């Protein structure tokens, strides 16, 4: 059985879990807080980051959400998620990288720092200026998503792909942390509502991270 | 004909160029300085980053070095570089992400900021403390590479792969900027010397970035 080392608000672990859910791969969850820098975890992943996936019987350790997703895309035929022509697959990977790197850097990383780490680790109040900047960035990035969704049914084209999963994973963490203002983003709202209704998304939405509580509407597909 | 938008010290563009060189794909270089935020470039890539590859006749625009490398890996059969079993390919992608994200974040990004951007853009002196920290990080990361190369011929296993290319691309930029102390890293030195001798590497090593000059030994395969 696969084991996934993660914590409930790690967006990269959510990306992996959504892909595994869509593909019907079973796994156990192991709770890991990478900021604690536990020796046993650093032995597993020298980069010290979640997610890590382990299948002990096969002797396989997978590290980095994209490497993990590509692995299951290659080994599980059900529902291709890096799909289409070579240029189409490049577009899926471009937007996946955009979610993992740009949206994460501008929105999710500062929200996690200010609203989760400062609370759980540093016991310090959040920096209001940084929170407002993250929310402004979210708004700009959602304008770009609105633009894409005005031209396409899904973010990378005509079918659901890893790009939708990666962006929804980041967005769901930002939403949990109160960083998303949905007003004026109808296309993104409709798209996200469809994703939230999928069985792969339900378990993620029902989990909570210790003392940090999401907004009331967070779990509702209709919000 | 493919066109590659890049600048000489962009490590992600070097990664793409090394892969294209190994695979024998021809391309033209277009000089782009992403920090200038030119409108025409932002229209091409909303993320505002190099590298971008364009093939006008085919109407194809490729963005993000990993998406670009996966595209040419899928479309050009010559010399597979994301190679081996599914688990082997995951190891190639793990180390490629380690180069692109961890080595870049800890070593190359601060060196580019302090030694290139401060000189060309801000006209400010570099921060000595940040430079020393980047060099210490380089040393730690090269210890990890020494360890891998004590157990394997190439970074991800028995054959050369995209992992070697991605790490060499980052390392070569750090070396250009005087951030690498080679003493005590014999395994990495031997490995890098072999890569430097490859025809794909030669054009990169002979290019210069305006007023910024590399150390004397920078181009020599034997250093
Ligand atoms: N490229 C990695 C990024 C993973 C990542 O940044 N994970 C965060 C948690 S959300 C982490 O472990 N941060 C701790 C650290 O970077 O030291 C992936 O896609 O898996
Ligand atoms: N994930 C991207 C990263 C590219 C990247 O960070 N490029 C740098 C130049 S080395 C850049 O354009 N930075 C400008 C910016 O991020 O605004 C890739 O692999 O292509």
UniProtKB/TrEMBL annotation, chains A, B:
Superkingdom of the source species: Bacteria
Domain GST C-terminal: 85-215
Domain GST N-terminal as annotated: residue spans: 1-80
Pfam families named in the record: GST_C_2, GST_N_3
InterPro entries: Glutathione-S-Trfase_C-like, Glutathione-S-Trfase_C_sf, Glutathione_S-Trfase, Glutathione_S-Trfase_N, Thioredoxin-like_sf
EC number: 2.5.1.18
Assigned keywords, A-Z: Transferase
Coiled-coil annotated residue ranges, if any: none
GO MF term list: glutathione transferase activity
Designated name of the protein: Glutathione S-transferase
């Amino acid at each position: 059985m696969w084991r996934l080392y993660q914590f409930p608000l790690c967006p990269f672990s959510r990306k992996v879990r959504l892909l595994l859910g869509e593909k019907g791969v079973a796994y156990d969850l192991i709770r890991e807080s990478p900021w604690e820098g536990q020796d046993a975890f650093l032995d597993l992943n020298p980069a010290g980051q979640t997610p890590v996936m382990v299948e002990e019987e096969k002797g396989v350790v997978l590290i980095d959400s994209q490497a993990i997703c590509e692995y299951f895309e290659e080994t599980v035929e059900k529902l291709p998620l890096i799909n289409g022509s070579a240029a189409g697959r490049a577009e899926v990977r471009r937007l996946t990288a955009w979610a993992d790197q740009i949206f994460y850097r501008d929105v999710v990383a500062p929200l996690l720092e200010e609203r989760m780490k400062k609370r759980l680790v540093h016991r310090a109040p959040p920096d209001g200026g940084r929170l407002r900047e993250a929310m402004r960035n979210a708004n700009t990035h959602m304008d770009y998503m609105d633009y894409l969704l005005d031209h396409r049914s899904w973010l990378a084209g005509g079918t659901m792909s890893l790009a939708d999963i990666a962006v929804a994973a980041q967005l769901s963490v930002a939403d949990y942390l109160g960083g998303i203002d949905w007003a004026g983003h109808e296309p993104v709202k409709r798209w996200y509502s469809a994703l939230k209704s999928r069985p792969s998304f339900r378990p993620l939405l029902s989990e909570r991270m210790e003392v940090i509580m999401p907004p009331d509407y967070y779990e509702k597909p209709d919000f």
